[in-house]
Every structure is written in C-alpha cells, then in structure tokens.
C-alpha cells in the first residue's frame, strides 16, 4: 500500500483550504506523537494518552513552532503564515489566541509537508520540534 496516490504539487496545495491543511497536519502530528510515546516505552494506555496530550496540546505546539521558525525555508514559512493567519471558528478556553494561531500554523505546515510528500523534511521538522520541547 502506498501512502499517496499522488503527492500534491505546491500549486495544487494552494487550492486546499488552510484549515483543511491544519486538519491533516493535526492528524500527522498526533500520529508522530503517539509513535514517539510508544518508542519511549510508555505502555499503559492511560499513561500513553497523558504523554501524547502533553506533546500535542496547543501550548506545546506553539513553543515548538517558535523554535522552528529560523529553520523554515521560504515556502514553509509561507505555509506557516497561511495557517497562523487562518481564522478558526472556535478557540479553546485553555489556550491564548497567539498560542492557538502558532499551533494552527504548525499544523498547516505539517499537513503541507505530508501532502506534498516531503516526508524526509517532515521527519526533520518533527525532530527539531521535539528537541525544542525537551
């Protein structure tokens, strides 16, 4: 089974709504977080869930995104800003608007990297994000 039927081009990606990119990126980010938690040896589902939530909550994503900004290329920076400037319909009560905007930008970036098939870059960005959270 292939992950992609065909990767999106940068041009085709522009037609994907920003919050849809963030939706895909949220799933990619969470799958990477869950995989990392299992690799860390967390076996009890309650503990795995708690650790995953620590990694994927908006505050952690915002902190990671701030550390990632200097390493982004021009295209990645544009995707991030597109996500950051999106206007979601709801905002979680436990999260500041700035944090949520940064987290949405990060998720849009992860969605874009995934959909364009840039999996090596996705892995590098994930790794850098996790370093920032240590």
What layout of secondary structure does this protein have?
Blueprint: H1 10-13, H2 18-39, H3 45-56, H4 58-68, H5 74-84, H6 97-115, H7 119-132
Helix pairs in contact: 2-3, 2-6, 4-6, 4-7, 5-6
Can you characterise this structure?
The chain is mainly α and 134 residues long. It has one domain (16-132): Ribonuclease iii, N-terminal Endonuclease Domain, Chain A (Orthogonal Bundle), CATH 1.10.1520.10. Helices cover 69% and strands 0% of the residues. The protein contains 7 helices and no strands. It is globular. The model has no long low-confidence stretch (mean pLDDT 93).
Radius of gyration computed on alpha carbons: 14 Å
Query: How many individual β-strands?
Result: 0
Q: What is the fold-level CATH name, i.e. the topology?
A: Ribonuclease iii, N-terminal Endonuclease Domain, Chain A
Measured between the Cα atoms of the first and last residue, the distance is 35 Å
Determine the CATH superfamily.
Ribonuclease III domain
pLDDT averaged residue by residue = 93
- The CATH class, by name, is Mainly Alpha
Kindly name the structural category: mainly alpha
Count the DSSP helices. Answer: 7
Low-confidence stretches: none
CATH A-level architecture = Orthogonal Bundle
Integer count of domains: 1
Oligomer: single chain
Level of helix content?
55-70%
Global outline: globular
Percentage beta strand? under 5%
Order of helices and strands: HHHHHHH
Major beta sheet summary: none
